[in-house]
Amino acid sequence: MERYKQLTLLHSNDMHGDFLAQELDENLVGGVSMLSGYVDKVRNEEKNVLYCIAGDMFRGSVIDSEFKGMSTVEIMNVISPDVVTLGNHETDYGVTHLLFLEKCARFPIINANLYIKSNYTRLFNPQIVLEVDGMKILFIGIITEQVMSQTRNESIVGAFVDIHEAAEEIGKICNAYHAIDIDLTVLLTHIGFEEDKALAAALDPAWGVDVIIGGHSHTFIEEPAIVNNIAIVQAGTGTDQIGRFDLIVDTFNNCIESYEWKTIPIQEDTCPKDPNIERILNSYKQETDKKYGRMITRFKRKLTHPVREQETELGGLLSDALKESLGLDIMLLGSGSVRNEQMGPLVVYQDLVECYPYDDSLHLLKVTGNQLKRMLLYMLRDEVWQGAHNEFYQLSKGLKVVYDRSKSEMLEFSFEGEPIDDDHIFKLGLQKFHFLNFDNFFHVPLAEVEAVAKPIVIATSVRDVLEEYLLNHQHLDHQIDGRLTLL
Question: What total number of domains does the chain contain?
């Protein structure tokens, strides 16, 4: 038997419905057609190839949203990944719908963490063993409760395990499969790059985990992180690039002898288009263009949202629009719900849906100045600046926060130019997702806020509110005005 064998592992994560190629410097970049073309090219060039996806295929484009993920599954069936694990956005259309989509998928979906609360029955197979050229490769799908916040909408479904419990679960699965001579063990995770490193550190080397392919934090890296002798990688976000491992596997000792890892840019000069994907995409695009091509508004200029963890032009405009439309004192708009880095100057309905794909309700809470300050201090805690994947918020006009990161101290906390009194009551707006996860996202008990006043739903569709506001306000502009200043 041959001892050393070559294996090529291709991987994507956080594709978010990034189906269409975009023009960059007169070149086409990204899109699932050229991505599929590259995967097929490698499959034809190399002997042993596996393609895996580490979560979040869904959400981000009107094609995905309009067909509630069915379009994504059809497209991925053509690309034919060898194994996929779940991300948090796979549950956006509901767990019941996810189970329907899983039945339509012609590729295996693994996850060790979603279960039915009443009897702890797993919803998916936790692992799969793929055999390639006589090698047995064990894949295990992992997500943690922290990133599965969306399942709080599902009363009968839970997502157990934190990092340490995840390590124990991985140990159980690895122990159960050691007897069948596993040559390589790969964790497909969707927990974020920093959490991947913490997970790797918690694993017993005797379990034989070789590689962690992750997602969720949209991290671009130049080389793998090595923790506990485990190579940890991630391929950013979207379809502009794909991760590639070229491994030499020692089948006698069931480990990696050597490897090379890099990200491959998906662009037209190196990646052929897939005509089957092109045909499917065109049929979906014709349908969505009819509905989503109408004009909503025109900004004075392009507005940007480059990163989550700071005040942004686009985030400020949208939070102000909700505050004004719904008569709020303060709107805290989840930075992560603004999915595009820029919008405008011309805004059509497709731009709005892709920028804000979550058609959720909006809750009105009454909070004291003291509660609001504690909420914002938790948002700005030290872990945020150390790489933790944290919920962050865009503040509406009137509220001003100056925070000194070096001292972990709020230097100014005012509303409409006046210092905020601990007992002052504010009408605060929160999206449903953030309301349902209030205790975790703000570290203030919701019961304490409910003691001030019972929260109520004041809009059943945030996107409807935003659309109406933009339709009735042309030539909008928004400048960074220092409502959130980080020193």
Answer: 2
Domain end residue (candidates: 261, 285, 309):
285
Record the tokens describing residue 82, joined without a space. 């060898």
Q: What mean pLDDT value characterizes the chain?
A: 92
Whole-angstrom distance, CA of residue 301 vs CA of residue 346: 8
Backbone CA torsion sign across 107, 112, 115, 121: positive
The closest alpha carbon to 320, from 483, 129, 140, belongs to 483
pLDDT of 393-415, one tens digit each? Answer: 999 999 999 999 999 999 999 99
308 in the same domain as 209? no
What is the domain range of residue 93? 4-285
Of 248, 265, 285, the residue that ends a domain is 285
Q: How confident is the model at residue 18 (pLDDT cuts 50, 70, 90)?
A: confident
State the pTM of this model: 0.78
